[in-house]
Specification:
single chain, alpha+beta, N Utilization Substance Protein A, Chain:P, domain 4, OB fold (Dihydrolipoamide Acetyltransferase, E2P), GMP Synthetase, Chain A, domain 3, five-stranded antiparallel beta sheet, 12 helices, 15 strands, elongated
């Protein structure tokens, strides 16, 4: 039977971004399912579909026998002669769907099955595209808002930024461009869901890579990051090249490099400090901008230390609501307490 579906397949392929072979396979499957209603004895159904030649055949193969014991695979001579006047005993014949039945099935193309298959292929393509990109920064266009987050579009794919992964007091409008990190790609009943974040320390690390060439090239290494999203962050950097000042390179001339990142993070204050292998030196730097007189390890096994400061440095060392000492402790990996001398 001649069917003109090749143009439709190509059009559907372009619209959905799915390979034509996937759509052809879906059509074949839908025809096979639909044909079972005509061949209702459990026959083995063959679909011969050549869309580029506009040819379509759907048939079942049966053996002509004198006594039918298996209706799915056998047919009597009398019935076989109805389908093929040249039928002979012990030979096989192909019983095709009648043209009108085949035409109706081909026209409908078992739409629900086809679109489900195409949808499955689309979802698989989304997963294959985004799963390897976990940890990358993407820029999406705000499309709509849901109760628990924001839907953005990235490369014609809808991705999701949960409210808990937005910065505090951050508001978007439809059409806004938003940078975020791909946090994870989940497979669920509705298909893969691409989840973004703007609050992860990894997001800050990737922003530093984008803005600071020495980090992206590996000349400067980011050793640790501690964040209170939207408020403050501490970043420890290190370089094996003695001619490079890792802190100065990250801050930039007049702070131009770090200001760009701070602006992206809604004014989040970013302290760049130099990493040190010695926990006492590291903690001293981590507590900046406070000036620390001395640090004493009070419990090595429990990783506890005490920083001693002058009276005028005490509130600076602790920070607003304790944020400075808390981030320093997280960065160094030791519990730091502040004592006024």
């Amino acid at each position: 039977m001649k069917v003109n579906v090749w143009n439709t397949i190509n059009q559907l392929s372009k619209e959905r971004g799915v390979e034509p072979r996937v759509i052809i396979k879906a059509i074949e499957e839908s025809l096979r399912i639909a044909a079972t209603k005509f061949f209702n004895r459990g026959e083995e159904i063959h679909v011969d579909f050549k869309p580029e030649k506009s040819e379509l055949r759907v048939y079942a193969v049966k053996t002509v026998v004198s006594e039918v014991k298996n209706p799915a695979k056998e047919i009597s001579l009398d019935e076989a002669l109805i389908h093929n006047p040249e039928a002979r005993l012990d030979e096989t014949i192909e019983i095709e769907l009648p043209a009108e039945t085949l035409g109706r099935i081909a026209a409908q193309a078992a739409k629900q099955v086809i679109f489900q298959k195409v949808r499955d292929a689309e979802l698989e393509k989304v997963y294959e595209e985004f799963a390897p990109r976990v940890g990358e920064i993407v820029t999406g266009v705000v499309r709509r808002f849901e109760n628990n987050g924001t839907v953005l579009e990235v490369n014609r794919t809808e991705v999701f930024l949960p409210n808990k992964d937005k910065l505090p007091n951050e508001e978007f409008k439809p059409g806004d461009l938003v940078k975020a990190l791909i946090a994870q790609v989940q497979k669920n009943a509705r298909g893969p869901q691409v989840l973004l974040t703007r609050t992860s320390p990894k997001f800050l690390m990737k922003l530093l890579e984008l803005e600071i060439p020495e980090i992206s090239s590996g000349t400067i290494k980011v050793k640790d990051v501690a964040r209170q999203p939207g408020e403050r962050a501490k970043v420890a950097v290190f370089s094996n090249d003695k001619d490079i000042d890792p802190v100065g390179a990250c801050i930039g001339v007049k702070g131009n490099r770090i200001l760009v990142i701070s602006k992206e993070l809604q004014g989040e204050k970013i302290d760049i400090i130099e990493w040190a292998p010695d926990p006492i030196s590291y903690a001293k730097s981590a507590l900046s901008p406070a000036k620390i007189n001395k640090i004493v390890i009070t419990n090595k096994a429990e990783k506890e230390m005490e920083a001693r400061v002058d009276k005028e440095q005490f509130s600076l060392a602790i920070g607003k609501k304790g944020i400075n000492v808390r981030l320093a402790s997280k960065l160094v990996g030791w519990k730091i307490s502040i004592k006024q001398e």
